[in-house]
Records
---
Amino acid sequence: IEDARFPSHLQAANVQAIIAGLAGKLDVAGGAIAGNLAVGGEFTYGKAKAISGTDLDALTTPGFYDGSNLANGPTGAGSSTWYYVQVQRHSNSGLYVEQIATALNHSNGASWKRLCVNGAWQPWRQMWDAQTFDPASKLNMSGGNLTGTLLAIDRLTARAAANGNAHVWLQDPAGNNRALFYWDRNTGDAHLRVYVDDGNGTAVPAGTISLRANGTVDFNGNTIWHAGHKATAAQFRAGTANTILTSDNVWAAAGYVGLSGAAGSTLAAGTYAPNFGAGLNFHNVLGGNVTIGNPTNAKAGQTGLIVLQQDATGGRTVAFGSAWRFANGNAPSMNTGASRTNVVAYQVLHSGFVIGSSIAGLV
């Protein structure tokens, strides 16, 4: 090889120098550069490295990548979405990394960015630009006018200031106040107020419905009656104040009760004072001689029937207390035949004066 007939670059000394020089060269087929690469002119590369199926949390090597089914990819995108991914790493530590992911087929070319700080990945944040974000179309958090519809899926909150009430105004298309819902911090009451035009362009209150902190409801200060005020049969009989009568409970109140015990129960010999606050109509079987005493809780104008049925033995007598008044001052004569029924109709004039009449001997 040292023969002068060979070109100088093929002579042994030169070939050895060439081989030694190739040890620090990068093969054109690819490889890794251990040191820095300085490019004086243009720098291009062929294509991104495919990383489909990769966990992006583990991708910390700087470079350009693309792929789909990327674990820990940007939020809000399906697992099958393809991304271009760029990775930058801090010059002194692999614990500080930046990733930027751009969706290939997103209508606005959306991109997301996140950082790894001291080995901990931070959440992805979408990167907005003039195509995807128009500040003029957003409402400032300090307040402003919302021109479109506001849809609150879970809740809509109006919070009172430290020394104020919470208000929600409803306006007509011209911007005139037509209704106000507000919470009063001093009382804890909530109010719905309706406004009308006074004819001169001024909105004036037409009425206010108030839900009080104590659970009552009123309109312009007048109590609103509701199902909670419905009188039971017992309340109707007792004349309970501030209750509402309904047909079902009026008829229930007219049902028979006993002078003592249940309706239709048998009375032993004794005195029984009807409780006109517990019933209007009474029914019992006589098992001995009884006296119908002066009623309690009598209400002027109250009327009803007292049905007294002889038992199978019969012969039971009935007397009446001093408050009972009958025609000509005579107590009615009762049919004492076995199982016969006698009916006394009554009306209260006042608590100590009850007018009575009777029908005797019904079968």
---
Amino acid sequence: MSSNRIVSRRYPKPQRASVPTEDAELVDVLIVGSGPVGATFARILVEGNPNIKVLMVDSGAQLTAKPGANIKNLYIYNYNEDGLDPLSQVVKGELTPVSVPINDPWPETLEPISQPLTPPVSYQLNGGNPDQSDWENMPAAASSFNVGGMGAHWTCCTPRPTAAERIPFIDETEWDSWCTRAEQLLKTNQTAFTTSLRAQVIQETLASMYGTELPTGRGVQMLPLACERINETWVEWTGVDTILGSLADTGTIPAERFELRAEHLCEELWSNVLSPDDKDIVNTSIRNLKTGEVYAVIAKVVIVAANAFNTPQLLWKSGISSHVSRALSQRPAHGLLPDSLEQRASGGDRHALGSSGSERRSGADSRRRSDTQCLDSVFRS
């Protein structure tokens, strides 16, 4: 029996909740998730078109005054090295396991092939999954449920992907173009620590040992970091607030153009809610986690950027085919070009998309499928 059939048997498709749409809120773009990906879409769309309304929702709370600010910028963690150890404990506390381990797991050193088909183990029922086999569990996998996601406490290391890490059907020119744009949004640089004596000693030592063995352009160099040196003793580390730019400053962008709602969960997506002629308009069910209120938001475009776990979960619950959800974790992701998405949000074609973006391949030759075709296939499947 295939794993897909097992999943289907164990977890029947949820029934769609009844959410009234008569008083639904209308927006041009709904972004689910406030991490670096969602924030990038929000900034590019709002800056690129003054006539659209972008609504962003996140199930997590806003932990800092500016949405998604990197907590490494708090004085106690930033000023000296003594702050690194307490910071690591804070980060661990902000990570929520996505899979509750069972009571009696098999030793990690024992491969699944060596385990019996029906292992004699007991299951943790309180918060766990009674049907989950131990080798199907991911006890080390965790997500951040807060505005900014992992961008609120990431390491800010931003080296460009090597040839082995690059998606083969995207040409080098496009790769370099988008990497450059990303570095601008993240404030990536290699100069923040050039005055550090320790960094200089490490660089010189490594270069003397390995410099002649490394390929051209990949020699020993300062690690590209997403940060900005403010003065001799202070470095401002990039967070989602950096990516959002002016969108993170209260009152700078009117609420009718951009709004971020923390502790609001997008529970489901579906289409064809107004009339057969509007079959591509996307209706969403949003829950205010504090009050429990459930309301509808109707959007021309929905961008699901809710991390590798919650994105396929939302797509599956919304009835989007299971093969799409599996593809999100099995294939590299590539987002829509901002100008084409902006055109759709301004009144063109209306679609829902997952963070997998557009898939480009054709037989032996890897060629780009059009964004429109891909989004149609994602939402209509």
